[in-house]
Amino acid sequence: MTLSTSLTLNFSYGSNMWREQMERRCPESKLAGVGILRNWRWFINERGVANLIRSEEDKGDMVYGFIYQLNARDEANLDRYEGSPEIYQKVFGIMVEVVAHGDVDVLKIGDTVETLVYMDRNHVTDGKIRQGYIPRMHRVIEDGVREGIPIAYFDKYFRPFVPSKSSYFIQKILAISQAMLSPNDTTEFSD
Which domain of life is it from (predicted)? Predict the structure, then answer.
């Protein structure tokens, strides 16, 4: 693989897999491919956002993500968005297997490439997803499937933390309806 030394390969596994968000945050970035990080597990941490943690080899865990090409300006932008180094720490040298091409033809399927990954090493236990993060994760799932990531991956790793779109909207409607009814409201509904 020939990649300019001024470019960094970033493995994104959370909300930056939503292509539109990544284009806003890092306008010069390019999707170089889809990758798998083996023997790691995706989860929502106690801060309510995506994170990674190593898993035992025999568990067969893996994390799919997008491999982006970043120039120095986009990497600096991503540092700010990820709260690096206070919230997410930059970890260089994480080896990712390329499983699909992206928008630029710089990676070969089957190759293993060295990437930069943002990880929160201080919040490493499962938590409850932030409400505002749910719609972004829905878009991540849509974009991931569009780029060839199996829906079974999202079902196994995302669904325990991210409600389906229909469940999410039903919960929102119920919350709004409940808020509209005052405690003294005696309105009864009938079929």
Answer: Eukaryota
Q: From CA 126, how far away is CA 45, in angstroms rounded?
A: 5
Domain presence at residue 189: no
CATH number of the domain enclosing 120: 3.10.490.10
Longest dimension (CA), the chain: 70
In a domain, 185, yes or no: no
147 domain-assigned: yes
Annotated binding residues for substrate, written as ranges, equal 133
Residue 140 domain-assigned? Answer: yes
For the segment 136-186, what is each residue's pLDDT rounded down to a tens digit? 999 999 999 999 999 999 999 999 999 987 555 556 555 665 666 655 555
Task: Provide the 3-class DSSP secondary structure of residue 90.
Answer: strand
75 contacts: CB under 8 Å, gap ≥ 6: 8, 10, 26, 116
Domain that holds residue 46: 8-180
* Dist. CA 4–CA 14, nearest whole Å: 26
CB distance 184 to 156 below 8 Å = no
Q: Which residues are catalytic?
A: 82
Q: Domain count of the chain?
A: 1
Nearest to 73 by CA among 25, 122, 144, 12: 25
